[in-house]
C-alpha cells in the first residue's frame, strides 16, 4: 500500500474522528444538536490537478499533487469540526482529479491488499503495512 492510499485511509479516519467531535481529546459537538440529527457540511475547492491528465506523470509528482489537496482537506476538516460539523462530504475526484487514461491514472493509484486474503483496518492498525510511503502518516491526523 502506498503513501497516497495510506494518507487517504488516515484522512478518512480523521474525517470520521472529526465527525464524532474528537480532536486532541476535546469535543467540538455543538450544544444545539438534538438526538436523531447531525450537522453536515459539503466542501469543494478548485482541486490542484495534473496539468495534463492524459500524460504519464511520475509517482512523486502524483503524490505531490494529491498531498496538496489533502492538506487543504485537512484544514477544512478541522475548521468544520470547530464549528460543530459531524460529517463532511468531499468531491469524489477531489484528491487526484479526473479525465485520466488507464495508463496516466496509474501513478495516482495504490496497491490494496485483497480483503479475501488480508483482514486489515488502516484506522485500527496504521503500522501493519509500515513499508509504505505513508508509514508515519498517523501523525497527520
UniProtKB/TrEMBL annotation:
<keyword id="KW-0732">Signal</keyword>
<dbReference type="InterPro" id="IPR040154">
    <property type="entry name" value="Biotinidase/VNN"/>
</dbReference>
<dbReference type="InterPro" id="IPR036526">
    <property type="entry name" value="C-N_Hydrolase_sf"/>
</dbReference>
<keyword id="KW-0175">Coiled coil</keyword>
<comment type="similarity">
    <text>Belongs to the carbon-nitrogen hydrolase superfamily. BTD/VNN family.</text>
</comment>
<dbReference type="InterPro" id="IPR003010">
    <property type="entry name" value="C-N_Hydrolase"/>
</dbReference>
<dbReference type="GO" id="GO:0047708">
    <property type="term" value="F:biotinidase activity"/>
</dbReference>
<feature type="domain" description="CN hydrolase">
    <location>
        <begin position="52"/>
        <end position="141"/>
    </location>
</feature>
<feature type="coiled-coil region">
    <location>
        <begin position="56"/>
        <end position="83"/>
    </location>
</feature>
<feature type="signal peptide">
    <location>
        <begin position="1"/>
        <end position="24"/>
    </location>
</feature>
<comment type="function">
    <text>Catalytic release of biotin from biocytin, the product of biotin-dependent carboxylases degradation.</text>
</comment>
<protein>
    <recommendedName>
        <fullName>Biotinidase</fullName>
        <ecNumber>3.5.1.12</ecNumber>
    </recommendedName>
</protein>
Amino acid at each position: 500500500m502506498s503513501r497516497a492510499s495510506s494518507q487517504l485511509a488516515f484522512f478518512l479516519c480523521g474525517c470520521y474522528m472529526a465527525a464524532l467531535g474528537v480532536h486532541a481529546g476535546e469535543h467540538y459537538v455543538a450544544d444545539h444538536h438534538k438526538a436523531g440529527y447531525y450537522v453536515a457540511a459539503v466542501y469543494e475547492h478548485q482541486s490542484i490537478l495534473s496539468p495534463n491528465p492524459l500524460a504519464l506523470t511520475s509517482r512523486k509528482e502524483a503524490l505531490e499533487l494529491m498531498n496538496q489537496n489533502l492538506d487543504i482537506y485537512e484544514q477544512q476538516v478541522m475548521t468544520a469540526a470547530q464549528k460543530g460539523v459531524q460529517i463532511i462530504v468531499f468531491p469524489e475526484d477531489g484528491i487526484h482529479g479526473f479525465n485520466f487514461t488507464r495508463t496516466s491514472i496509474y501513478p495516482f493509484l495504490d496497491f490494496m491488499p485483497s480483503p479475501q486474503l488480508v483482514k486489515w483496518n488502516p484506522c485500527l492498525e496504521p503500522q501493519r503495512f509500515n513499508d509504505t510511503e505513508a508509514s508515519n502518516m498517523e501523525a497527520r491526523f
